[in-house]
TrEMBL record:
Protein's name according to its UniProt entry: Probable nicotinate-nucleotide adenylyltransferase
Pathway listed: Cofactor biosynthesis; NAD(+) biosynthesis; deamido-NAD(+) from nicotinate D-ribonucleotide: step 1/1
Gene3D superfamilies: HUPs
PANTHER family listed in its UniProt record: NICOTINATE-NUCLEOTIDE ADENYLYLTRANSFERASE-RELATED, PHOSPHOPANTETHEINE ADENYLYLTRANSFERASE
Coiled coil, from the record: none
Protein keywords: ATP-binding, NAD, Nucleotide-binding, Nucleotidyltransferase, Pyridine nucleotide biosynthesis, Transferase
Catalysis performed (reactions): nicotinate beta-D-ribonucleotide + ATP + H(+) = deamido-NAD(+) + diphosphate
Protein family per UniProt: Belongs to the NadD family.
Superkingdom: Bacteria
Stretches assigned to the Cytidyltransferase-like domain: 20-158
One MF annotation (Gene Ontology) recorded for this entry: nicotinate-nucleotide adenylyltransferase activity
Function field: Catalyzes the reversible adenylation of nicotinate mononucleotide (NaMN) to nicotinic acid adenine dinucleotide (NaAD).
Length: 207
């Protein structure tokens, strides 16, 4: 198990600023890459780790491709040494973000993590298990995904966390802030989604 965990945790060193982008990656696509490059620049991160989940508890996983297949495809799409692919959640036996973040904060306490998600996820963040705990454990960056902006910023979680929102101009300092703290990043205009890249039978279109 220890060997597997070492392999699941990408290379890192103390003090690194790491963005965490979780998802099914079924399939991975260029929007995942664009969001990661955008976050690297705007948040002044050293790396972004794609956490390929065994299965999203809020989604129907019937058409989910094998974890190894999704991870291999993610490495191909990422195509940047600053973007690392990890199947950590499968190794430690969880599908919940709260458990993953707790584990990373224990195992890699000297790293500065930022949780990255799209505005579509902020809109349903209040449905995530222990979402208040997540917000209290790690700073968060939300990437705007028009036309979901209004719905996301008026969702229960966004309203509850409104007093902890930082000005977008302070995004580069988010990794240094104690949680709860979050920023809403605008300027990236992409409409790709994994749902739109799947055929009715669950197979992937060209990625």
């Amino acid at each position: 198990m220890r060997l597997a965990i070492r392999q699941a945790l990408p290379p890192h060193s103390d003090g690194m600023r790491i963005g965490l982008l979780g998802g099914s990656f079924n399939p991975p696509h260029q929007a995942h890459r664009a969001i990661s490059l955008f976050a690297l620049k705007r948040l002044q991160l050293d790396r972004v780790w794609w956490l390929v989940t065994p299965g999203n508890p809020l989604k129907d996983n019937g058409g989910l491709h094998a974890l190894a297949e999704r991870a291999a495809a993610a490495r191909k799409v990422a195509a940047d040494p600053r973007i690392e692919i990890s199947c950590l959640e499968s190794v430690i036996g969880t599908r919940y973000t709260a458990d993953t973040i707790d584990y990373l904060r224990r195992r890699a306490s000297r790293l500065r993590f930022v949780w990255i998600m799209g505005a579509d996820n902020l809109a349903q963040f209040h449905r995530w298990q222990k979402w208040q705990h997540i917000a209290a454990q790690v700073p968060m960056a939300v990437v705007d995904r028009p036309p979901r902006s209004f719905r996301a910023l008026n969702a229960p979680a966004a309203r509850a966390l409104a007093r902890y929102r930082l000005p977008e101009a302070d995004a580069g300092r988010l990794a240094d802030r104690a949680a709860p703290a979050w920023v809403y990043l605008t300027g990236l205009k992409l409409s790709l989604s994994s749902t739109g890249l799947r055929n009715p039978d669950g197979s992937w279109k060209s990625i």
